[in-house]
Fold this sequence. Notes:
The chain is α+β, with helices and mostly antiparallel strands. The protein folds into 2 domains: 1-40, no CATH class; 52-213, Peptide Deformylase, CATH 3.90.45. Helices cover 30% and strands 30% of the residues. It is built from 4 helices and 9 strands; from the N terminus they run H-E-E-H-E-E-E-E-E-E-E-H-H. The strands form 3 sheets. It has a 5-stranded antiparallel β-sheet with strand order 3-4-5-8-9. The chain has a two-stranded antiparallel sheet with strand order 1-2. Strands 6-7 form a two-stranded antiparallel ribbon. A hairpin with a 2-residue loop joins strand 4 (98-103) and strand 5. The longest helix has 27 residues, at 187-213. Residues 129, 131, 171, 175 line the site of zinc ion (ZN). Residues 129, 131, 171, 175 line the site of zinc ion.
Amino acid sequence: MGKAILFFPCHTGAHVREHGFLLFGFFCKPHIFMYFTTQYYSSMRIYIYGEKVLADTAQPVGVITSELCSLLNEMVLFMRDKHGVGLASPQIGVSQRFFVMDAGGKVRKVINPEILSFGNSTAEMEEGCLSLPGISMRVRRSKRIAVRYQNETGETVREELKDYPARVFQHEFDHLNGILFVDRIAQIARRMVIRDLERLAKKTEEVKYEAARL
Ligand SMILES: [Zn+2]
């Protein structure tokens, strides 16, 4: 028997996930060297402002399959890797009504969400978005909402959310309707980030053009 050697491109799981593969090599005989590549993340990436899927209305989820549950698990890991507190399906290029969020000390996997009611009081807070890198703005949202959604086991969950979890839920819910936080700010404030938005959209076009050439 030859000796087995494991090769990792880097020590950290984060780096491995970033590159989407693990590289394994081992000796089965002293002079025969074999490599295997294993897909770790299903080449998940963040879709950036300017990509059509972010502006689309996502479609309801019919059956909650084991594939969807795996995807939700991967999204939670991916979101943490990117230091996000929420990640909606259009942000990974999937136009279906689900998202994950990690706010208020609880991870939620949210499928077919509805916002049943909005409280009267609102608050402003600085928001960012993984799909709008480098941009953050104060956004006014309801402080309290009542929501209903299905979790990954298909159970219907009803919750009253307030403050930060309510904000994150509203932000992610917006993604499913093709709405980004920059669509929620006043025209005058939007003018301050219009250059950044144009820059992102231009960069996205360039990336798509380069990809199309490959
Ligand atoms: Zn976002």
